[in-house]
Amino acid sequence: MILKILGVVLLVAGVLVLVYHGFSVPKQHEAKLGPLEVKVNESQRVDIPNWAGVAGIAVGGACLLLVSRRK
């Protein structure tokens, strides 16, 4: 059962990597100088390589194939 769930999660994650190529991480910087306060919000992009998505799909498919052959 755990192997089946792992296979589905890896398949979905692999497809998402191939579609979106990564994700954004929000960052907030604050500075206080006496009564003056400055806040800066920015987001940093984390790119995930395509080979990681393909590997996730392959390993997820292999997990599901193993589960189906055991029964």
Question: What's this model, at a glance?
Answer:
This protein is 56% helix and 34% strand.
Protein architecture, described:
The protein has 71 residues and is an alpha+beta fold. The chain has one domain. It has 2 helices and 2 strands; from the N terminus they run αββα. It has helices at 2-20, 50-70; strands at residues 22-33, 36-47. It has a two-stranded antiparallel ribbon with strand order 1-2. A hairpin with a 2-residue loop joins strand 1 and strand 2 (36-47). Helix 1 (2-20) packs antiparallel against helix 2. The mean pLDDT is 91.
Strand order, largest beta sheet: 1-2
Radius of gyration: 20 Å
Largest sheet features:
2 strands, antiparallel
- Care to count the β-strands? 2
Provide the succession of SSEs: HEEH
Count of helical regions? 2
Query: What is the CA-CA span between the terminal residues?
Result: 12 Å
Estimate what percentage of residues fall within beta strands. 25-35%
Summarize the helices and strands and which ones pair or pack.
Blueprint: H1 2-20, E1 22-33, E2 36-47, H2 50-70
Antiparallel strand pairs: 1-2
Helix pairs in contact: 1-2
Fill in the keyword field for this structure.
single chain; 71 residues; alpha+beta; two-stranded antiparallel sheet; 2 helices
